[in-house]
Amino acid sequence: MDALLIDKHVKYIQSLGENTDDLMYHLTAHLRLNAIYWGLTALFIMGHPEALVKEDVIAFVMSCWDDDEGAFGAHPGHDAHVLPTLSSIQILVMYDEVERADKERLVSYLAARQNPSGSFSGDRWGETDTRFSYITLQALELLGRLDAIDKEKAVAHIRRCKNYDGGFGATEGAESHSGQVFVCTAALTILDRLDEIDQPNLAWWLAERQLPNGGLNGRPEKLEDVCYSFWVLSALSILHKLKWIDSDALIRFILSAQDPDGGGIADRPGDMVDVFHTVFGLCGLSLLGHPDVREINPIYCLPAEIAKKRGLHMNYQVLGKDEA
Amino acid sequence: MASPPMWRKLGAYMLNNTNANEVIDIELLPADGSEFLSQYPENPNSPFFLVEGHLGIPQKQLYGAYLSALHFFPSFRQSIVDALDSTDVALATSVILLANPDHNSAWNIRKKFLLSGALQMNKELEVVRLIGTIPKNSRASLLWHHWRWVMEHLFPVAASKTLSRSSDLEWAVELPPDICERDLEIVHRAVATYPRNYHAWAHRALVQRHILAHCKNDPDGAWNSILREEYGRMTTWLESHVSDYSAAQYLVQMQWSMQKLELPLPNIARDPNSLPGSGAVEYFMALLRRFPERETLWLAVKGHLVQPEQHILTAAQTASLKGMLLGEVKSAGSGDERLRAGANALRFLFWYLHQEDNVKFTEESIRAVLSSHSDSAITRQTLALLPLLGKTE
């Protein structure tokens, strides 16, 4: 399979949410808003933003508002959390409808997520993870309110989660993981503190994620997975080290994980597809310069043209794009 | 007369509210469990099975119970939940979380109930432990967080104590040694049944920090005893799971922390003439000689070498390492294992020589070294590393 099956993927995304009686639908309710953001982002970079009905999507987003807390939950009736809150803001940004949300209450909720140590929690119950640092920082930047948190402490916490291999973990002492590496690298970019990155050790660690079959894994000795095409690649893109991996082999790997019948992309060839791997496979192809995919800004995982219009950080590498 | 909804029955088992034997662990059985049902016609726990404390739940029953437990909640808003029967809420959330431990709203309800007293903190740990006995559940980050949250209430830090260490701020507990030991055992079971379990290992690292913080001032030696036991558990595990990088990196971190605190590494003879740290490196090099194809072990050795206290290799170790590296590279051939071994060794070699000797590699010299490889994938991937090797950017 060497073609990117855009039309099939668009139809696949449109079909999601049709089976509301599915067990799968209910097992993933706590991720619903995130899933809509993944689907919409994929549609945007495939050049088909109109494939979902804008007002229907926005209506669903607003129905997830948790008025007790002043932020968004993943599904109507679910509790507020930074994960769906960022997804909501990202969706509204893509549709250029951010004013629909209560910006004051959102900023208040997000700022309250920073802990005395500088770490960030996902919600009022306190789970901390460097993912939440990134998510909260991005959400605040999109709302133009990065001033609402303590940047120095945020950096200090991320630094404490840096490991000897140059990678980052979810919490202090936790193993380096590509997902965590991405969020920490992107968070440091937003904070203009890439000096905190252990170079070139981190680039080495990222380059070592590539396996003989061309795919990338998330940690040493683990299997390849298409989603790491985004987590690993975005970090390499931010570090301007995309040439440290074999891009042809990776492109072939991502394309081979497509479902030629129903559309969508899976974690690896032959497995069942889902919207998560679909968007991240497409984002990987974008960074690798695939001609059929529009540019994604890896720092935010938002379409580049939208990020540019909003004056966000734009310093990253895309293969094949003219170097400045 | 209609029988009670499945989730009430299942929830009762989980909260040990029945006359049945105490439930030690839970196992998911395939499909609807009909093959087991036919073996035990007189089963009083039908459609579940309870044999010597092992509760077996057919998948079909669990997910059916999950869906109906979800339907019990019109919404997870406080005002809506307050109007529901609290016993039912406790049963329904335990079933929701057994099937889907990522369901944050369900965990939140339980936290609210724990704060109000509708649920008890000490019993809650048992519910969480039970949920975690299904291997895939033990990967859920929220499960481990809920565990730590409950522990913060059971073992709070004295009000007079100022929390200054970042790790204390992240998990504000004052744990006695036996509780740390219990947590380590629970984590060990989780990583044994679900290998590379990220959040289990992350929890283990938090517990390890807690133990280490007590080891210098340890009058009765209880803390050092637990530390040594954990060290032994890790080396035993690693020696029979040499691709478990989560374990290797955990051990490397443990070794440094112990070296920094000047605690002796168990089972490693301390040679007074050698540099501190060389014992820990030797531990991994010995494993590497036996399993040179294992990426995990190369990375662990590399991990020790990037330490701020750089020159921890003896001259003999350096020579041995270089010899191994070059030998590995030259003998690597076709076949997946040897290919990987060659790739791992090559990457390590280039990185190491670049660091230590500032050797500059050219495409020519690399192709010469790689001439013994028939597979172009290795050549391509190694050449992709050239930008680093020739430049300093």
UniProtKB/TrEMBL annotation, chain A:
Cofactors required: Zn(2+)
A GO term from the CC aspect: Rab-protein geranylgeranyltransferase complex
Domain annotation Prenyltransferase alpha-alpha toroid: ranges: 4-302
InterPro entries: PGGT1B-like, Prenyltrans, Ptb1, Terpenoid_cyclase/PrenylTrfase
UniProt keyword list: Metal-binding, Prenyltransferase, Repeat, Transferase, Zinc
EC class of the enzyme, as a word: transferase
Catalytic activity: geranylgeranyl diphosphate + L-cysteinyl-[protein] = S-geranylgeranyl-L-cysteinyl-[protein] + diphosphate
Similarity-based family: Belongs to the protein prenyltransferase subunit beta family.
Entry protein name: Geranylgeranyl transferase type-2 subunit beta
Organism name: Dacryopinax primogenitus (strain DJM 731) (Brown rot fungus)
Automatic annotation (TrEMBL), chain B:
Record GO cellular component, one term: cytoplasm
Family per similarity comment: Belongs to the protein prenyltransferase subunit alpha family.
GTP-binding as UniProt keyword: no
Gene3D superfamilies attached to this UniProt entry: Protein prenylyltransferase
ATP-binding keyword on record: no
PANTHER family referenced in this protein's UniProt entry, alphabetically: PROTEIN FARNESYLTRANSFERASE ALPHA SUBUNIT/RAB GERANYLGERANYL TRANSFERASE ALPHA SUBUNIT, PROTEIN PRENYLTRANSFERASE ALPHA SUBUNIT REPEAT-CONTAINING PROTEIN 1
A GO term for molecular function: protein prenyltransferase activity
Keywords: Prenyltransferase, Repeat, Transferase
Annotated protein name in UniProt: Protein prenylyltransferase
